[in-house]
Design a protein that fits this description.
185 residues; alpha/beta; two-stranded parallel ribbon; 40% helix; elongated
Length: 185
């Protein structure tokens, strides 16, 4: 592998955008729960004070070993540093524009808003989701973004309401069974 080829790869990788898959739509606010905000802060702190210094140490050691063009520790370390720095930039930007919304302070407990944990019936199957910020989504654990089609369909509904959910499979009717605030997010 030539040095020119390695250098071109590094330059292309540095041009990658910061976390494009989690982009906020234009004009959308970056709502986040207090727990989600703490998780992002903790991740940034860990990357900055633990992960990055370890990788810098490995890269410095590998650089001292001579030829860098075929030095796996050096090449991987530089790549990992770029990944960490890209993630730190992303986290910094997200934390900067985040609007923390505490679901436990919700005044209208009878309606679905950001932070609500909702149990609903969809085609005879009972499901429970918590509506959270885009940076907190975790479908496997029932946390859906407030921008998702499901959350948008549920917003402002009350227990007993039947709302229409537009999905690729067509329009489905879902019935709101229970609304809770202050649950685990």
């Amino acid at each position: 592998m030539s040095k020119a080829f390695t250098k071109e790869d590094a330059e292309v990788e540095d041009d990658l955008p910061d976390e494009p898959e989690a982009a906020l739509p234009a004009g959308a606010k970056n709502y986040i729960t207090p727990a989600g905000f703490r998780r992002l802060q903790d991740e940034a702190k860990h990357l900055h004070s633990v992960e990055r210094p370890k990788i810098v140490e490995v890269v410095a050691w590998a650089a001292g070993n001579g030829d860098r063009s075929e030095n796996g520790d050096y090449i991987y370390g530089k790549k990992r540093l770029r990944e960490i720095d890209r993630r730190l930039r992303f986290l910094s930007k997200r934390l900067e524009v985040a609007e923390v919304v505490d679901p436990t302070r919700q005044q209208h407990l009878d309606r679905i808003f950001f932070g609500a944990t909702v149990t609903y019936d969809q085609s005879g199957a009972e499901r429970t989701v918590t509506i959270v910020g885009i940076d907190e989504t975790d479908a496997e654990n029932g946390r859906v973004s407030w921008l998702s089609p499901l959350a948008r369909a549920l917003m402002k509904a009350q227990e007993g309401d039947v709302v229409s959910l537009r999905s690729p499979a067509g329009v489905e009717q879902i019935e709101v069974l229970e609304i809770r605030y202050g649950g685990s997010t």
